[in-house]
Specification:
Structural class: alpha/beta
CATH architecture of the largest domain: 3-Layer(aba) Sandwich
Number of domains: 4
Number of strands: 23
Number of helices: 19
Shape: elongated
CATH class of the largest domain: Alpha Beta
């Protein structure tokens, strides 16, 4: 208790006890005896400061004792409050600092205080509980993340300015967030008191490397327009949606989706969604529904468990509107044009698989809603693309710039465009193809459009188009209706919602736009048929089982390329009946036409297609002489 405080308190109390002639020395002595020995010096100083003769020693002592009693009661009340705070802190597993220990600390009002001690595990636990209260921090797989927006479009236009990106939480940002959430203090041995400090590097590293985070919300992805939940309700409140794990971060204000909807409302909504695509030269009504299906997939992504197919805009000539069609889909769903990534190819015209995996991993780490590839040249496919197109929530990819692989979230929709694109291998069944063919020689010179400045029109009508899409999806979901439109393997949940809702609203079946429905897209199937016929012709049928004799990949090449490495002046080789077989092998092994392909490339292709039934036949692998690998064509019903 300071002297000034004592003086003020005592002065107020003693003012009611003015000096009188009745005060005696005995009463003064008695009053002095009542004052504790430890406080007599303070009392004596107070007496000296007051005007001489105005107050008696007894009055001064009474005032002093009254002030001391008030302070005792105040201290007791403070102890009760501290005990109550400590009880609450114990529940939250946080440690509060006693007032006497932290008197020199600058407190942030309303924030808990955490002691940094030698028990690192306890410190990290406390920091983790503190971080769970941050509305801007999430977890994804084994890492802490936050969401930022891209400030500018990158050089390759892979990321467009304004795109929300999920980024790993740097240690510096982690320290900043923790200091916003609580007061960290450490004990200063020299000063013998608790002083304010920052979270230590050990705490930050321990929290960053923990990999499992209790109480911190899992982030599945980010949406920029209202989205459909699995139960048919709509995400319309900005912020984190606990039911789906998506963060809703809108850039404009959207109207509310009506609660009571009918099939008639869905039909009207579908007509609204068709309007932005009215000027495109689609080949069929199923092709017209493909961009609408892509838009509905983005709006309904929170309601779809598992993977969604990719979408390819394909045309025979440039200027047909492939990229513009993709942009319309993205402007409605995100408010921005589509990213324009370059699909990686080698100098030999093959897919650069390693580079493709790194590109897809960067999209995965950022939890991108859209993966875009523009101006495809030649082919589209590859093992990494097949992997992400059928990934169920998580995907294992190699990280760009590192040798490590990491399992991370995947919820993106892959959109691509190109001219007469060849879809490779297993990618065929994972992609919807929107085919456009213009009736004019130079499509880029067309005129007379209903919406000449289409993207500007779409931007102005974005909110209306988003609500139309959600009206269609919600009306179908709450109706309980089902439509038998077929199912794509691995995309069952998507098949039950998107194509079915479009057909229910009166649209064409988008399942007819699958690449497998287009004979021109399944070149490999034709190649297998040619291979089977060539093997049967090349090798004699043995016995009654009607099976061709086995032959190795090396012997196949030697048999059909006996002297094919000829010089140009030698002229073309004589026909031998294996022209189609050579063409098929050269196409699938990507070798130079007219040259012998490598036997191991042919063996890899045979290994990839073995067991696939084409025209009632399949390729079978068997063990040949000296444990060599041999191949033969057998009827599909024959036993191995």
């Amino acid at each position: 208790m300071s002297t000034d405080t004592t003086e003020t308190t005592m002065g107020t109390a003693a003012h009611a006890a003015p000096n009188s002639n009745e005060a005696t020395v005995d009463s003064d002595a008695k009053a002095l005896a009542d004052i504790p020995r430890s406080a007599r010096k303070t009392w004596a100083i107070g007496v000296q400061k007051w005007p001489a003769g105005r107050y008696s020693a007894a009055a001064v002592a009474a005032a002093f004792l009254d002030a001391a009693e008030k302070q005792r009661k105040a201290a007791e009340l403070n102890r009760e409050k501290l005990a109550e705070q400590e009880a609450k802190a114990k529940k939250a597993n946080l440690r509060l600092i006693a007032d006497g220990e932290s008197a020199s600390i600058t407190r942030l009002p309303g924030l808990p205080q955490l002691q940094i001690t030698a028990r690192l595990a306890d410190n990290v636990d406390q920091a983790e509980k503190l971080l769970a209260g941050d509305p801007d921090i999430f977890k994804q797989s084994t890492r802490l993340v936050h969401v930022v927006r891209a400030e500018s479009t990158d050089k390759g236009k892979r990321v467009i300015a304004g795109t929300p990106l999920v980024r790993a939480l740097p240690l510096a940002t982690l320290k900043e967030r923790l200091t916003r959430l609580g007061n960290f203090v450490r004990f200063d041995a020299r000063a013998k008191k608790w002083v304010q400090t920052l979270p230590t590097d050990s705490i930050l590293q321990g929290l960053d490397c923990r990999a499992e985070y209790r109480g911190i919300r899992e982030l599945r992805g980010v949406i920029e327009a209202p989205g459909l939940r699995p139960d048919g309700t709509v995400i319309q409140t900005p912020g984190y949606d606990a039911a789906t794990g998506f963060l809703y971060a809108p850039s404009i204000v959207f109207p509310t989706v009506p609660k009571a909807l009918s099939q008639c409302d869905a039909a009207k909504a579908l007509l609204e969604l068709c309007e932005p695509f009215c000027d495109f030269p689609f080949v069929s009504e199923a092709d017209r529904m493909v961009p609408i299906a892509a838009l509905l997939t983005l709006l309904g992504r929170p309601a779809i468990a598992g993977p969604v197919p990719g979408v390819l805009q394909d045309a025979p000539t440039r200027g047909t509107g492939k990229t513009l069609c993709t942009d319309v889909v993205c402007v409605v769903a995100t408010g921005r044009t589509a990213p324009r990534g370059t699909f990686p190819m080698t100098n030999r015209g093959l897919v650069n698989v390693e580079e493709l995996e790194k590109i897809l991993s960067s999209y995965a780490l950022e939890s991108s809603a859209v993966v875009g590839f523009d101006n495809l040249s030649g082919v589209f496919g590859g093992a990494p693309l097949d992997k992400v197109l059928t990934a169920v929530d998580d995907v294992d990819l190699r990280i760009l710039g590192r040798t490590e692989r990491r399992r991370t979230r995947w919820s993106a929709v892959v959109l691509a465009s190109g001219n007469n694109v060849e879809i490779l291998g297993d990618t065929v069944r994972r992609v919807l193809v929107c085919r456009m063919v213009s009736a004019v020689e130079k499509p880029e010179e067309r005129a007379g459009f209903k919406h000449p400045e289409l993207l500007r029109w779409v931007g102005k009508n974005r909110a209306r188009l988003v609500i139309a899409g959600l009206t269609l999806l919600r009306a179908y979901r709450i109706s309980g209706a089902t439509c038998d439109v077929g199912t794509i393997g691995s995309f069952e949940d998507w098949s039950r919602l998107i194509p079915s809702a479009i057909v229910w609203a009166g649209g064409a079946n988008v399942m007819m736009a699958r690449a497998t429905q287009d004979p021109a897209q399944d070149d490999e199937k034709r190649s297998i048929a040619v291979l089977v016929a060539g093997l049967i012709k090349l090798c004699p049928v043995v016995g009654l089982d009607a099976m061709a004799a086995p032959i190795s990949a090396r012997n196949i090449i030697d048999a059909i390329y006996p002297d094919r490495d000829r010089e140009p002046h030698d002229g073309p080789p004589a026909p031998d009946g294996f022209e189609r077989l050579r063409e098929a092998i050269e196409q699938e092994t990507r070798c130079q036409p007219g040259r012998k392909p490598e036997a191991n490339r042919l063996g890899k292709w045979l290994q990839r297609v073995r067991g696939r039934v084409v025209d009632g036949w399949r390729i079978e692998r068997i063990e040949g002489p000296q444990r060599s690998v041999c191949w033969r064509a057998v009827p599909s019903g024959a036993s191995s």
